[in-house]
Amino acid sequence: MAFDLKKPPRVPVTLIGGGAWAVRYAGKTFRQIKNDPQQIAEVFIQFHHLFQNDLIWTGSNFLNYPVHFLGCPIKDDSADSPAFEGTVIRNLDEIGRLSIEKVLQNPTMQAIIRSHHLVADAIGKKTMIVPTQWAPFTLTARILGMEPLLIATVQEPEKLNRLIQFATELTWAILERILEHPDIPGANFSDPVASGDVVSPATFRTFSAPAIRHLVDRVRAKKKYAMVHVCGDTTRVLNDILEIRPHAFSLENKVDLKIAREILGGKVCVAGNVSPTGAFLSGTPEQVRAEAQACLNAWGDGAGYILTVGCDFSKSVPLENMKALMSFRKER
Predict the structure, then answer these.
(1) pTM of the prediction?
(2) Are 288 and 324 in contact (CB under 8 A)?
(3) Which pLDDT tens digit goes with each residue over 257-276?
(4) Cis omega before residue 273 (within 30°)?
(5) What is the pLDDT of residues 25-37, one digit of tens each?
(6) Fold adopted by 19-331
(7) Of 264, 100, 261, 229, whose CA–CA distance to 176 is shortest?
(8) Concatenated DSSP letters for 148-200?
(9) What pLDDT does 331 receive?
């Protein structure tokens, strides 16, 4: 109902992201479970059973594996989000050696895709399952490297757009297979590299927004819901979000919810924006509840709002602080 901009009986409450936290809580490492779709699924199913999230981002913190399958070394021997140890290509002249089929044929990639379906089989009728993927601009940065990407926005924009197009098709190739399940009603695209703290609005409009819009249109064409998350201060591109046309936009606590409501209210559902690094990480449950209540107060009584953290969160967030945020699910 929130995604459809209708007012539900209570405000939806969830914990977006949380893959690393869930893996740690299960006593596993990413390396231990990555080849077993049932073990991956159990991590997210347990996460839902623990908190009764109204929405869950399946695949959270598994997003770097497609880049690994393209040829980038990865470190995944802990519950920390798998981290790259290099890049796939050294420059934009190497785009031609990238292969989507190489990613899709990897047995671990197939296990990860299958895990989304197993989660949907188990809890798809109890919560809104929204598999998450990197948005193309961020996926491009993972393939090429952050500094070369930012330089290329100025020096080699045409070649950079070729790589962004490849990243767009890779994202869709994976997601299209995930969305085949009837109890997976939508998808999320996360674009941290497009943050207003990293790139200008002009760069966002030129390189990030068109690729996200293309994927949002594809999701909508399947009669599914599209959600977008951009890290940092996105205040200056909120009007651009209207042009991208997601059903929901997830934003960080650097954005004033009152401003977000003025621009997006009644047009795009907004999810946010308790800080994942403030009281939620190192404060008390009472402080978490106070911050969550402040978010509710800032948004007001209008439809189209989801109470949640403003971004993915550390695997070391205390359980009681997460429960403090989720307590609003019962109260409202």
Answers:
(1) 0.97
(2) yes
(3) 999 999 999 999 999 999 99
(4) yes
(5) 999 999 999 999 9
(6) TIM Barrel (3.20.20)
(7) 100
(8) HHHHHHHH-HHHHHHHHHHHHHHHHHHHHHHTTSTT--EEEEE-GGG-TTTS-
(9) 57
